[in-house]
């Protein structure tokens, strides 16, 4: 039986000075396809891709860049951020899997912060993302949306004292809550939160941000038109090296190809 391992990692402001620890974290996942968020430093990307012997494509956004590393053939890619005003970062790529089936990935980075007005911006960004991938949904074409959504799941239990001080302040500005509408919009469109699907109990309390105050899960791998039985494993990498290589813990998914 063939499996495909996918990994998403926000490497923090390009990862300058951290290429080797970042590469070690990624290498340990045995990933076939890796989405990198805030992939802003070309030298870091080159070093990581060479060390891991993976092909590399980059989609430059307005504030940050996205990158896709792949051991599999990359069939084509589109940098939607160059074609649309929102979101700031959206890279679409299609890879050919080990069983010769093609899989489309939408790598994205949404607007940050936890205030109500920030969530409203993310909702507008997601309207654009969902419009891009509407033909895929209509045709039941297997695809993923993955990356740093900077948004909280409606199923997550957030203990605000475990969050960053800046998030606690935004929580106070909101009147004592963190908005959850953006992720709900994705779920309503028919996507599965792979981590929650496979590990519902852990998904309620396991965070990806920040590595020092891991009170929120902002990083996701959503699937569409992929049967749930093909989702074999999902994980958040929280080992010691990952804690210091970036400010986000990365997330992975293994799919039956």
Give your account of this protein's structure.
The chain has helices spanning 19-28, 42-52, 116-132, 134-138, 165-173, 181-188, 194-198, 200-205, 240-245; strands at 3-10, 33-37, 55-60, 65-70, 74-79, 89-96, 102-109, 143-148, 192-193, 219-224, 231-236, 251-256. It is of the alpha+beta class and 257 residues long. The chain has a single domain (3-256), classed as Endonuclease/exonuclease/phosphatase (Deoxyribonuclease I, Chain A), CATH 3.60.10.10. The strands form two sheets. Strands 3-4-2-1-12-11 form a six-stranded mixed sheet. Strands 5-6-7-8-10-9 form a six-stranded mixed sheet. Helix 1 (19-28) runs parallel beside helix 2 and helix 3 runs parallel beside helix 6 (181-188). The protein is globular, with a radius of gyration of 17 Å. The model has no long low-confidence stretch (mean pLDDT 96).
Integer count of domains: 1
Estimate the global geometry from the Cα principal axes: globular
Please, what is the average pLDDT?
A: 96
CATH architecture group name: 4-Layer Sandwich
Overall structural class, as computed from helix and strand content, comes to alpha+beta
CATH superfamily: Endonuclease/exonuclease/phosphatase
Major β-sheet, in short? 6 strands, mixed
- Determine the number of helices (DSSP H or I, runs of at least 4 residues): 9
